[in-house]
Amino acid sequence: METREFTPSLEQLVWTFGGAAPVMRIRPGTVLRLWTEDAFGGRLRSSSDRPSALLDDRYINPQTGPFHVEGAEPGDTLVLHLVDLTPARDWGVSTTFPFFGGLTGTDRTATLHPALPERTWIYPVDRAAGTVQYAALDSDFRVDLPLAPMLGTVGVAPAAGEVRSSLAAGPFGGNLDTPQLRAGATCYLGVHTEGALFSVGDGHYRQGEGESCGTAVEGAMRVTLLVDLLKGGAPGRPRIEDDDHWISVGSARPLEDAWRISQTDMVRWLASLYGLTTMDAYQLLSQTCRAPLANVVDADYTAVTKIPKSLLPAAVAYDGTHRRMRLAAAGL
Amino acid sequence: METREFTPSLEQLVWTFGGAAPVMRIRPGTVLRLWTEDAFGGRLRSSSDRPSALLDDRYINPQTGPFHVEGAEPGDTLVLHLVDLTPARDWGVSTTFPFFGGLTGTDRTATLHPALPERTWIYPVDRAAGTVQYAALDSDFRVDLPLAPMLGTVGVAPAAGEVRSSLAAGPFGGNLDTPQLRAGATCYLGVHTEGALFSVGDGHYRQGEGESCGTAVEGAMRVTLLVDLLKGGAPGRPRIEDDDHWISVGSARPLEDAWRISQTDMVRWLASLYGLTTMDAYQLLSQTCRAPLANVVDADYTAVTKIPKSLLPAAVAYDGTHRRMRLAAAGL
Amino acid sequence: METREFTPSLEQLVWTFGGAAPVMRIRPGTVLRLWTEDAFGGRLRSSSDRPSALLDDRYINPQTGPFHVEGAEPGDTLVLHLVDLTPARDWGVSTTFPFFGGLTGTDRTATLHPALPERTWIYPVDRAAGTVQYAALDSDFRVDLPLAPMLGTVGVAPAAGEVRSSLAAGPFGGNLDTPQLRAGATCYLGVHTEGALFSVGDGHYRQGEGESCGTAVEGAMRVTLLVDLLKGGAPGRPRIEDDDHWISVGSARPLEDAWRISQTDMVRWLASLYGLTTMDAYQLLSQTCRAPLANVVDADYTAVTKIPKSLLPAAVAYDGTHRRMRLAAAGL
Amino acid sequence: METREFTPSLEQLVWTFGGAAPVMRIRPGTVLRLWTEDAFGGRLRSSSDRPSALLDDRYINPQTGPFHVEGAEPGDTLVLHLVDLTPARDWGVSTTFPFFGGLTGTDRTATLHPALPERTWIYPVDRAAGTVQYAALDSDFRVDLPLAPMLGTVGVAPAAGEVRSSLAAGPFGGNLDTPQLRAGATCYLGVHTEGALFSVGDGHYRQGEGESCGTAVEGAMRVTLLVDLLKGGAPGRPRIEDDDHWISVGSARPLEDAWRISQTDMVRWLASLYGLTTMDAYQLLSQTCRAPLANVVDADYTAVTKIPKSLLPAAVAYDGTHRRMRLAAAGL
Predict the structure, then answer these.
(1) Are A259 and B146 inside 8 Å of each other by CB?
(2) How far is Cα B277 from Cα B283, in angstroms, rounded to an integer?
């Protein structure tokens, strides 16, 4: 397998899915070793830093990419296997933006309240212990939390010539903010444009389900990806597979629509995996799925539906792609 | 501890929270051994049974109760510890009601589509193996799934003289349909009326998160409860504690409001457990919580927020009530 | 026609639909001359009055009633024609409750913001001019606004033994808070219990569409109603007819579900009035309806769908009941 | 005033806001005489035409434009005064797309229902009578409805380099689908990019509020616009002014968020027009506004808040721009 490396310069960062020239052309089967900047462009570095003073809310979630995958055409299935995610800094950061987050009035859930206080928490990383440290700002409370690296954004160029902010999510993937995008996961994305033009970014050193305050423990990340391409078979929405689960991802507002998208997609996936009718698959889903929230804060909320493989007979999705990726990754 | 038993006759079933005379007066500290009928009043028994022919949708989720707890006054905290849930029949049942469920038009998400097909699945119980068997109706696919008994409904009489259908949920608890209400869990409910007047029902032999098709593997249940009372301290919404988690429960529509209710309640709970300010608790929640959906099908959707105790320093909620309940239950 | 009068004493006020004994039994065809207390029980009388100090949020919207209509059985259609609504005081009042209203965090759209300021506006009534006067609290701005009396709540006892707060709305009617409930309107409500047990209250001297801050210009009202009964034909949701419009009313959350309820009901109504198929009625509705919001603040939001009669050929609903009511009212 | 004319060729049609080179550079003060193609690119012409066979759902709502306005910079206010809208064909058309519309499952409100029937209605235009004719497909019912021409889409290039489908709406305007965009209306849009790059399209010969089935009486349109520019003062969301109303426009999902956006914007507008505090403006809005829905079917739902000028003392918005536009239009 060919290995390519890419660390974007400041000028190479992009804040959209679609709309940017590719930084590299790669072949299916390539190993990518990347560096991703944190959601804030590295500008928040101290608990006294205020996001409203230092950040432009149009330029959040800088992307590493886009990458042009040779041979990728609309209707194909892009395969991104996350081999490794390693924090690239010895600190992460979380903050409360004015009018952004799940438990505040926002630009959409528009109320007449003044903004909640703007605060910034710095999380030192202890690589040896595998932890980040939460420290309360207003008291002495501290606790070490396990590192659980994930990528917030994984997406391709959208359909129909759209260019979407790296805060948005949809059929093209994007700002999914689900902890399922961790090392060992294989992500399937429908291709909408020639070359797919995918990018990744928004590394989280850890995140609760829902990403309630609007930001995770954000941090620059070293990312190792295996990139592959399946001709045809594009899923309508992002799907994820890991050793333990099949996962469908829905992004929309209101939250029940995000859930409905992921659920109906999983009904179809189960029907296909086990040769079930729609109603039989609906029933099987109803008694077996897990439904953790991903985020309820982004431009588009994301909900996921997970089926534990352990509950069901062995089945093979996407011609065994995930297993093939795991084997290839083990050989790196 | 005093032990009381109660198996309702057909005439004693009730379909509301509030509005019914108590079937029994009990003292705090009582062990209750109960029998609960299934959601359908036991009327669906074969895959050829059609709910629209056999059921009246105003009479779903029959309750066992209500029980009058001596000394319970508005503002107090009712404690219900689920000691044991054992399937009372050797089969469970699930079905698709016309215009009920998560992936169909409903009486609220009203569309012009005809109803989805009305189907009924019977799940044989294998007690020795600890499984129920899913069998597809339209093919030969079968799979044994682990028994995971839980209660769909746990509630008290609502505030302000309201009487709510046993399909509804709210500050009084009710049709929460969360798998968290399993053996080993302690449920805290605010008392709204003298005697609390709580009831339980709607046993599920297992349920996926979201209860997508509208019904779980429904089944009659033998229920052992420990009932206790804390003076004052009524939580605004139902809370649950088990050995591993603190859990806040929100019920509302749209789904993001159910989530917001559970999240803001957990922010306050964390603030209280660890002496944190609101913003510090909001941040801690954001990086540690789990947010599985309970149901997206009932009259009121339910979302839960869970904090894994393993992530945080030891802390004691409700004066150690949960641990006390566990010890008492172990002695039964 | 028989005329009955009723002015509730303080002890006779009720705050629920269902759950109260009737204050009077009346025959279909009766003229009722009623007095309704304002939403706050008359307790807010000055701009220095604070609702949180003076009100119990479980006891808002006191009802005048319930009235038992002789012969009314489940499945029948209760007809309430609003003959006259006259302000019963020379002042109205509006206020901002903490955590209540459309542009604030609430107990459901739960956020971490402190409450918006609690303010009270008194509106003097000028009967001769037909106006109420808005006066800003923080500046000298004043403006006279036209009196536009309406009833916020019109409802019957709910189905299945439920008792609902007079803040709630649903198939039983209730806290609809739509300006369509003005003099000259005929309201059709499905009967769920013997005697229908309807009540009215929550008079508004005027209200914007949406009732944004949570309260209208609230005021005690003298109400003249014509009560009638149609055997059978119960509409699934409240309907209103006036000289100019057919109106369907939907109450639910999220707001799109309230809208969907009213829209699908109107599709069926149009199909029935003009002998159209569902798809033809859907198309006709799409090009002719008006869709003003009623309220986006109550326990259940309410949206209405209006069809201007002037756009369509003459048609007769409910056997000409509205016209009959208008003629009868003219003769009073 | 300079007058410019533009009729796009087939190759000049665009289906996005942003992302296309300007077709013309114009100076503020220009009169534009334009031709807009219908939402379906003119491809649906008979009741036997099926949209799924003839249309690509990525290419709906072709735009006429974009136009580069000289001197327009981010933060400025683009003024588009609709002088005249005249149907350009003697027929309009409406249809039901599979999985598109308000009373059907969709790609977002994803259910397991098969699509509703796909039907197409042709509306002959009678210019002399000023009507379009609705004819039922499944019966003989026909009715002439008044012509009420409006533009469904009016938008500029979005912020931050986004390119949005002409089905989307947001701070950039876009697919608002509100009947308020009729002749005599002045639309104020914030400028996000140099030159503003606005376009218009999606003419409707008439539309009900909500655009329930997903499409209005769609038709090609001759459009006369007056274009002007105000330096600075960009509104956060589209605003509209006509002789009778001030109008704020909110686009989002769920529908209550669209409403909240328009309402909070109007609170601020009223505060500014009359020197009121936020709470006083909130109160005034609550008793005076009208809240008709625009559409509940697009990618983003749109709600509007209207304040009748007749209710309030005379006030001048945007330095009298609307009156100036009306006078200039009268002189054409």
Answers:
(1) no
(2) 10
Is the ipTM higher than 0.85? The answer is yes
Say which of D16, D160, D257 has its CB closest to residue A108. Answer: D257
In whole angstroms, what is the distance from residue A172 CA to residue A261 CA? 14
Distance between CA B98 and CA B55 in Å, rounded? 11
What is the pLDDT, as a whole number, of residue A162?
Answer: 98
Q: Which residue spans of chain C are classified as CATH 3.10.28.20?
A: 239-314
What CATH class does C239-314 carry?
alpha beta
Binding-face residues of B in 129-158 toward A, CB within 8 A: 134, 136-139, 141, 143, 145-146
- CB nearest to D108's CB, from A58, A257, A279: A257
Q: Which CATH architecture has domain B3-92+147-230?
A: Sandwich (2.60)
- Interface list for A 240-279 with C (CB within 8 A): 254
Mean pLDDT, each 10-residue run in order, chain C (332 residues): 96 97 98 98 97 91 98 98 98 97 98 98 98 98 98 97 98 98 98 98 98 98 98 98 98 98 98 98 98 97 98 98 98 92
Pairing between β-strand C63-69 and β-strand A164-165 as defined by DSSP bridges: unpaired
Angle, vertex CA B2, rays to CA B1 and CA B4, nearest 5: 140
Instruction: Using a CB–CB cutoff of 8 Å, tell me whether A108 touches chain C.
Output: no
Rounded Cα gap, residues C21 and D279, in angstroms:
41
- Confidence band for D25, pLDDT divided at 50, 70 and 90: very high
| B58 pLDDT tier (thresholds 50, 70, 90) | confident
pLDDT at A58: 84
**Do residues B203 and B68 lie in contact, with contact meaning Cβ atoms separated by under 8 Å?**
no
> Which residue matches tokens 């909620």?
B317
Interface residue D52 vs chain A (CB under 8 A): no
Homologous superfamily, domain A239-315? Acetamidase/Formamidase-like domains (3.10.28.20)
What CATH code would you report for C3-230?
Answer: 2.60.120.580
Overall residue count recorded for chain A in this entry: 332
Do the beta carbons of residue C196 and residue C228 sit within 8 Å?
Answer: no
Looking at chain D, the domain(s) classified CATH 2.60.120.580 span 3-94+149-230
What phi and psi values does residue B138 have, to the nearest 5 degrees? -110, 5
Predicted confidence at residue C1, as pLDDT, reads 81
Identity at C166, one-letter amino acid code:
S
CATH 3.10.28.20 domain span(s) along chain B? 239-330
In terms of DSSP bridges, do strands B245-252 and B301-308 run parallel, antiparallel, or are they unpaired?
A: antiparallel
CA angle A114, A120, A124 (to 5 degrees): 165
Measure the CA–CA gap between A131 and A125, rounded to whole angstroms.
Answer: 6
Superfamily assignment of D239-330 in CATH?
Answer: Acetamidase/Formamidase-like domains (3.10.28.20)
Cβ atoms of C64 and C38 closer than 8 Å = no
Q: pLDDT by residue (tens digit) across D58-114?
A: 899 999 999 999 999 999 999 999 999 999 999 999 999 999 999 999 999 999 999
Q: Which ranges in chain C are annotated with CATH 2.60.120.580?
A: 3-230
* Contact state of B102 with A267 under an 8 Å Cβ cutoff: no
Domain D3-94+149-230 sits in CATH at: 2.60.120.580
Structure tokens at A93: 């950061």
Put simply, whether D330 touches A (Cβ < 8 Å) is no
